[in-house]
Amino acid sequence: MENEELQRLVEEISFEDFGKPFLHKAVFNPRLRSTGGRYLLRSHHIEINKKYFDQFGETELVGIIKHELCHYHLHLEGKGYQHRDRDFRELMKQVNAPRFCSTLPEQQRSRATRKTLEYKCMECGLLYQRKRVIDTKRFVCGKCRGKLKFIKELTNK
Asked: Which residues are annotated as catalytic?
């Protein structure tokens, strides 16, 4: 599927499901990594992650387009277009748009092998569990300002 086909599909979905025209650009953005698509507030364009179409097919793509069109139409109407807004949630139910897109296989692998690091304060004994490495020369305990020491790495399974 090319950008021209995507543009036609977005215009078609907008008119059929929302009853309104899509007057801006819809393109595939190869730089998107952690999301299926995004609506750009300033330009009103929609960008879609092509990996989702390649790996899950047109059904997933249509769901992502509907989700982004909810942002698009509500923003242009001056209504609540953010995920937390009631207008957004109600419109998503009306057009049967998904709240989240499926997880790509490469993201599933990185989540499965995520590790937790454990640090201990040498003064008060408080344990810290973190996903990221702490520079123990720079950072101190938030409770007593004592030195932190790396204890062990925990694997999440």
From this structure: 68
